[in-house]
Design a protein that fits this description.
The structure is a homotetramer. Chain A is α/β, with parallel strands linked by helices. The first copy, chain A, has helices at about 40-45, 95, 130, 140-145, 150-160, 175-185, 200-210, 225-230, 245-255, 275-280, 295-305, 325-330, 335; strands spanning about 1-5, 10-15, 30-35, 60-70, 80-85, 120-125, 130-135, 170-175, 195-200, 215, 235-240, 255-265, 270-275, 285, 315-320, 340-345. Helix content of chain A is about 30%, strand content about 25%.
């Protein structure tokens, strides 16, 4: 089959590779219909993830049809149309018993990372019963593929951890795809203010269309003042960090109200300064999280009942054999204005 | 009357000062029976608290008898024996309505800080109805005075924020009075392990007597390894920081299990390094809190039902007119082995 | 002044009575601008409430202007425009300290019940600081008066207690004003299904306009079957009882999913059958609650940020001196299709 | 092998039956070392459970050694010593994903009920990975077998659902084995009062030894008055129903404080009267639950760290081939004072 293969930092190609095969009785092989590219795929391509060796097929998002299943897959059948979760989990280990599927001792986010992924014609999915979700025939696959990773990530790490609530004031730092996913899912809880902060006016315009009540371009270094003014000097109840660098995390520290929460989504490569000399008596909470995909069933229900429109995130579409162009488009988002790019088989 | 007065960094004296008088109809004047000294009194004496000007009577802990009350105090009477909370609160403002009494816009921890305190013959208590707790005649005043500040601080900032739970693994970094208060109140929730970490073997011995299941002297810089070993390599579910310097906070970061909580109690004077490059995907939580004294009624019940023995914290006793000696003893805890020193009228 | 006075079962009149005066330093006198009538006013008129004696001025909802204040009211001023909460609370007692303001030992729902109420030119409000909410000049008083009682009641007793959540299935039994208030506020949490059940097709039509995803007329006795069918045989996660008779409560028992919650809002006059022989192993929860008005600040924020439109509930308007006509209209809702009737000064 | 077989209402015998065999790749066969008898075994023997047909081997509690395992059991090995949970669960279905293992669509409490049980030389355990817990060599099997059912039942249905908390007032109605299990595990949370209510003075004496702070013999019909007096007229914060008849449930309604919780453990055969005419405005909660065994890992930790001594529940011991005598002893608890009887292989 054909697949997008990582060949070490900065190198990828559209290769002919062997088809995946069932390895364990809990596996399924899925024929990919729709996939997409994630910011973490770009991280891997830069060589940032030691867990992902050269030769790996990338991709951890997708929708497809079950092609074959292991003997111990009990809830799915060949021919079922399924959503692929970015998180595979055994359901048995210490962490799974605590619903921390991201830390499953034999799973977690392994797809397109520790094992071959979805940017291919076929993919092997471990723990198929818990990692695949049957979908209705006729369901919108493009909307569904947003539930593989980006929506649960924005929702669990940002909105749930940030305890967004009716009437609360929320700021989201970073208006890229994951920040926008947080913005979309924060609206499940009807906050009073949803302030979006970014350096890029185009992305802030998109945020407005997605439901931001205000936007702040932080280029001038005065974002904190602007947010404090918008919140009557009190700061926000929830600050969602969706970038992953010290400056954005520290901005969250500055705009947080007493009693507030910083919910970190960003992937950080270095330490940040935590100003406990200012924060020790402010009754604040800081959270981190790798998506557990524990909310996927709930997100499917909100999608089916039209409480959310994740297709808003889709800006471009490519056929699978043009995936290298898709990568180019996605990697140059500042110029292309790409958010999520759909890859169709 | 006589009172312990702060006269600027490093200076205190036992002065004759005017008696306090009622200023608002919600005030009460309390004649002090029993008081004690807190680590934050020492901070003030060092000049660390800009909120506390020279001329201030120190002290925010005490038990006494109501001497006079304002017209709008409705639940207390002259002659009532009362516990004084370190937190005064209006019960009406934005923060009080959220039970964040520490951030009351006209209260919080103001006693012996922004207004005169309890290390005197008499003290004025604002918002008497919510800041004083009637106690039974014959109740143990020495035990009760531990409920003015240190027990609610250890409990709310450490144990409640740290979500200590039956069967969980807990480490407390710092075996001084507030760390020991956390140790005592953590046992309300029957954790499996209560590991106490300090540099001082004497304090660790005390911790063992107070219920620590293990102790670690961190002098050798190998505390993190020791704790990881004790927890099967997984780390602790709750790490309570009860010192307030970067090294102890960063130790908490190192010993925390995936999914765990760092509950900060320590008063920090400088920033700390938050290693998000290691922690961003560990599903952790960090909390800070100034005591709200929201748990005082509950702590009174556990005291009355003998679920806790806070007198364990008391090492020395002085008459009120020897309070300067009490300060000397408390300030040189390494030599005197002082934990809490009782000041009796 | 003029006021609507209850004179015993079935008897009310528009009387000239003395103006209210300040009785305690925490009181305020409010000149009424806008009031409304509640279902519980009708209960009182039937003689159902032993706490409300003849001679009482009715009404516990209103918006007005502060005419005078007691010496100990610290957060409000004469001339302030205010929303009146149906719950008055001291903020000091055992129950207030637990945020159960409805059970305040000297407050709770006393207005227009144990003390004179708002269907008059002036009203005395106890505990003014915690029971009145300043509102912006130019704010929509008709919308605001819905926040005196009906919205917090539907929200706290129905939606909060019922833990309505994104993607969940909710049924509300009773499409009268309070059921509709639950319907409006349930949408803060984006449930997947909001099924409204009533005997009256007109009220069900209203419910559809207010956001119900489905309606069931229960006249045929087959409502339970209909709801089970709509929920794939599983039942609803939340059943909100908004009527107050055995038949509707028992319908909630029948349509509840394993793990679900019955949140009772209805005022019940007799016992109901709880079928524990069916429910003991179903992991269910049943809650009751008298509104605490603890959510009023939050509801004000959602109103100001246009997350809710409570004016949808208003069907009729009367001048204050035609309040007897307003009562007639409200009491014959089946014919007049009245939901909430506005009384304007 | 030999096994205790149910042969229809009132009939049981110690029969020779075929050994169990692996049926699914997720099964394990366990050789029983230690078992016990549960009150629900007696219910089955009376013919109360339609789910349990004649011919069934009874028993859902036990400790043993794995004799053989299916191909898809990944976390256990032949020869492992294991605790058997009364709940078997797939970990994949709608209810398992919500941690409601008791409602697993292909599991739940099926052992000794819908499939053959543990009162035999060998037993087949479905979903072995999630339903068996490896235990240390040398661990106390008699203590451990109390974790198969009775401790998680008392803890989850009574203590967790009842939100027992430090300083709270708790009453447990029914001082049989399950009520006593609730009593033991309630102490994890340091409540101020633990009032035990029963008709049998012997069982109340046992309760005192187990940590009850007070006992009430309800024979005289004045238990409610007694409890109200003990709680200053306010009632209890948590009432745990551990009997399962209308009189005891209705006693819980009478002794509940405003804001309190009735946590039902009892297996009810008929409806009860729920006095909503008294309770609709009392802000109460009622819960039911079939044990999910979700707390078993935590209970194992509290056992290993000596926070609980479940062997207190054991009153008698029998060899496996004398299990009919064990049943006699257990069934006549009033005379034999039996609580839990150990069956040893």
């Amino acid at each position: 089959m054909k697949a997008l293969v990582y060949h070490g930092p900065g190198q990828r190609s559209w290769d002919t590779v062997p088809n995946p095969t069932l390895q364990l009785p809990t596996d399924a092989i899925v024929k990919i219909d729709t996939a997409t590219i994630c910011g973490s795929d770009l991280h891997i391509l830069k060589g940032d993830l030691a867990t992902c060796p050269p030769g790996r097929i990338l991709g951890h998002e997708g929708v497809g049809i079950i092609d074959s299943i292991g003997d111990n897959v009990t809830t799915l059948h060949v021919g079922d149309r399924v959503l692929i979760s970015c998180v595979s989990f055994c359901g048995k280990c210490y962490y799974c018993r605590r619903n921390m599927y991201s830390h499953c001792t034999t799973g977690g986010w392994i797809l397109g990372n520790e094992i071959d992924g979805t940017q291919a014609e076929f993919v092997r999915i471990p723990y198929a019963d818990t990692s695949l979700y049957p979908i209705e025939k006729g369901a919108d696959e493009e909307a569904l593929v947003m539930l593989s990773d980006i929506l649960p990530t924005g929702f669990e790490c940002g909105v749930l951890n940030g305890r967004v609530a009716p009437g609360s004031n929320v700021a989201i730092v970073g208006s890229g795809p994951v920040g926008l996913a947080a913005l979309l899912t924060a609206q499940f809880y009807s906050p009073a203010q949803l302030i979006m902060i970014d350096l890029d006016d185009n992305r802030l315009d998109v945020a407005k269309k997605f439901g931001a009540t205000a936007t702040v371009n932080s280029t001038d270094g005065k974002a904190a003042e602007a947010v404090m003014k918008m919140t009557g000097g009190r700061g926000v109840d929830t600050a969602i960090e969706a970038v992953g660098v010290p400056a954005t995390f520290e901005l969250c520290e500055k705009i947080l109200a007493a009693g507030g929460i910083i919910a970190n989504i960003g992937v950080h490569g270095t330490k940040v300064d935590l100003h406990l000399e200012n924060l020790w008596d402010r009754n604040i909470t800081i959270t981190t999280r790798l998506v557990d995909a524990v909310s996927t069933p709930m997100l499917l229900k909100t999608l089916c009942s039209h409480k959310i429109d994740p297709k808003l995130l889709i800006t471009h579409r490519f056929k699978l054999d043009r995936i290298l162009d898709a990568y180019e488009t996605f990697a140059h988002a500042a110029e292309t204005h790409a958010l999520k790019v759909i890859i169709e088989a």
